[in-house]
Amino acid sequence: MKKLALLLTTLLLALGLVYPGGAGQAAAAAAPDYTEIATFVEGSLLISPVKSVLVNGSAYVPVKLAGQIPGFTVAADTTGVTLTGSKGSTKLNKDNSILYKSSNYVAFKTLLKFGAIDGKYAPSAIALFVWSTEDGKNKSNSMLYAISKLPGTMSTVLGKKVYLYGHPGSHWVKSVQYIDDYNQNLVLQNEAGTEWVLDLNEYVDNTMYTATHLQLLQKVYNGTTVWTRNPNMNNSLFKNLEKVTISNFRSNPTNGNLEIIIRRANGQEIPIEIDSAESYVTYLDEILCFQNPRTLFKISDKMWSAIREERAVSGMTMTELLLCWGDPDSIKDNYLVYGNQYVYFHNNKVFSIVSL
User: Fold this and answer.
1) Cβ-based neighbours of 18, under 8 Å, separated by 6 or more
2) Which of 96, 101, 103, 258 is most buried (most C-beta within 10 Å)?
3) What's the rounded Cα separation, in Å, for the pair 51 and 101?
């Protein structure tokens, strides 16, 4: 389970790539901070394209979902939107609601004021729990307790749309089953509406990523020009350090594994599975160069041609050799070992290459 917790956090490091520094960053900091959160009512997840949001620390519920909370009705006419609960009615206005992604949202504190409900925002799960009955309260607290037993950041998948290596399609994480201090299961629902249980201790691959992670990868990387690093790819279809474009990221429709789609200059698109054993950002840095290496390292025409052909030659610098063949199998005092090839250096350049 530790691997899953790690994969759910590493991509957040890439957020720094989205916002430029200086005045733009200050402006972004001053703007409202919207975080989409899951909504549970009486212990059950409300699955909907629209989600509740946390805005500068305050929770807001979509009006479309507010009507699914026991005791509330929503009516709209030419004068606006009216929310009615067991304790009274109120018109939505700038003080008790917000507009987000073209939808109306009502403040959760307004729901508490006008309805016979109670609730709690769970920051570890990024989820809002609402209940109106003792049974709903008990179910919510039971789930909150199970969440608290999950290691690391695994609780953040609760209520989220996720993808799993080895399981095609998307799935919603509906609840956590608490077994004991060391064992929990996730209850999921697939695209067909069928519930199934994921035993975290039996899930060998143990790799899950959320729809939010997928969208963030697309936002950060789609359209980026990169150069392929063949020595770090298995069965590469590219020429070494070929200039290509990141076209997209997707969940493989056959097995659910995360893939990056690379577009060549001729328009051909090639999917590459992202290794589940490493963080997304680390793996992308291993297989791709995000700056033109020829310009960055001032590589001559002769050496560039050899590197593109993955042909190590005398006179190469260490950097040029690494771009050509990748990391060595082992490092000795004055030579590097690549399988049965021994690369000797003199004055920081390749002096000879011996095959044994």
Assistant:
1) 219, 220
2) 258
3) 11
Please give the C-alpha separations between residue 74 and each of 37, 56, 71, 80, 98, in angstroms, as whole numbers: 21, 25, 10, 11, 16
Per-residue pLDDT tens over the stretch 46-87: 999 899 999 999 999 999 999 999 999 999 999 999 999 999
Best CA proximity match to 221, nearest among 254, 256, 255, 259: 259
Report the pLDDT value the prediction gives residue 206, as an integer from 0 to 100. Answer: 63
The three-state secondary structure class of 21 is coil
pTM: 0.82
Alpha-carbon span 74 to 322, nearest angstrom:
64
Among residues 50, 1, 2, 11, the alpha carbon closest in space to that of 209 is found at: 11
Task: Please state, as a whole number, how many other Cβ atoms lie within 10 Å of the Cβ of residue 56.
Answer: 9
Reported residue count of the chain is 356
Rg of the chain over Cα atoms, rounded to whole angstroms, equals 26
Q: Which amino acid is at 350?
A: V
> How far does Cα 153 stand from its chain's mean position?
13
> What is the tens place of the pLDDT at every residue in 269-305?
999 999 877 778 889 999 999 999 999 999 999 999 9
State the amino acid at position 121 in one-letter form: Y
Please report how the helices 318-325 and 301-308 are oriented relative to each other, as an axis angle in degrees rounded to 10: 30
> For 238-245, which contacts have Cβ atoms below 8 Å and span 24 or more sequence positions?
238/262, 238/264, 238/270, 239/308, 240/307, 240/308, 240/309, 240/310, 240/323, 240/324, 241/289, 241/293, 241/294, 241/307, 241/308, 241/323, 242/308, 243/292
